[in-house]
Amino acid sequence: MKILDFKYVDIDKLTVSEENVRKIELTKGSLSSLADSIRRFGVVNPIIITENYEIVVGRRRWRASRLVWEFTRKEKFRMIPCLIARFEPKFGNDPRIEMRLVSFMENMTRKWLKKDEEAEAVDALKKRGLTKIEIANVLGASKQIVDSLLNREYQEWE
User: Fold this and answer.
1) pTM for this predicted structure
2) Distances (CA, A) of 46 to 96, 109, 152
3) Which pLDDT does position 7 carry in this prediction?
4) Which residue of 10, 22, 83, 153 pairs with 148 in a disulfide if CB–CB is 3.0 to 4.6 A?
5) How far apart are CA 74 and CA 142, in angstroms?
6) Phi, psi of 57 (to 5 degrees)
7) Domains in the chain and their CATH numbers?
8) What is the CA radius of gyration of the chain?
């Protein structure tokens, strides 16, 4: 991934990338504490988007920002800080693999993924041609953990 630019982007110009690994439905209730924080302090950590304004990392921040905008109608909440990134075709000449890896790793470090989301993300990488060893190396996990996720035998990450 190469960061190309940092800028504030209108929340209505953004869409969620299919490579964003968080699939859980976001509700007003699940976003209320984040929305309150954004209302008080703004978005502290920029989201990561593609050159086509697809959100790879930061879907919750974007949705919470939309809620704050809808509630307050203050222009300062209409724009969200973004890192615009170009994703490299490192694995099988498909930049979407790196997009999914970045999204997966961001959510894993925050411990926000459910086990089925972890398994789905690893399965998608395997279907795109990465070997279990490549997946394990990139994620910093053991081959056994990758095996357990592919087999839906959930264990904690090492």
Assistant:
1) 0.73
2) 20, 16, 33
3) 96
4) 153
5) 47
6) -135, 130
7) 2-89 (3.90.1530.10)
8) 16
